[in-house]
Amino acid sequence: PDIECYYNSFNAICEVTMLTSRDQWYNEGQPVMRHSRAFEEANAALPNYCLFVAPTLHKDTINTFYISVKYEYEGQKQRIIPITIPQLKLILKVVQQVLKKNKPFTHNYIKQLYDECVDMSNVKDSTQWLDKINTSINLWSERLIA
Fold first, then answer.
1. Nearest of 51, 47, 119 to residue 80 by alpha carbon
2. What are the pLDDT digits (tens) for 30-71?
3. How far apart are CA 126 and CA 133, in angstroms?
């Protein structure tokens, strides 16, 4: 993984690519799921997440991650959250705004966002999942900035 994060209540990795074409799926799909699974196995005591960041998200990449989150990868569901660079910028801007207001910002806020993004209870397909992630980020941002 590009970044490993360890918190009291969860762990996460971050995978970043600049690829945007179908090469994104080819070069990142299986490796990201494999890295995520290895991280999950090495840190099994807590929930583990994988934030996948790209300039744009290719349809094939989304479909691949959707299957691993909704159904499984190597027998277990994963918690991969694909986002774009503009979405990451929004998340970081929210953190900055919360801190500027002298409010505490804890890892639990990030976990809440991640949990919302991987909740597939009302998601029927990969396109709907992308919309849900975007909505989750926007609603999370509004809650924290309010």
1. 51
2. 999 999 999 999 999 999 999 999 999 999 999 999 999 999
3. 11
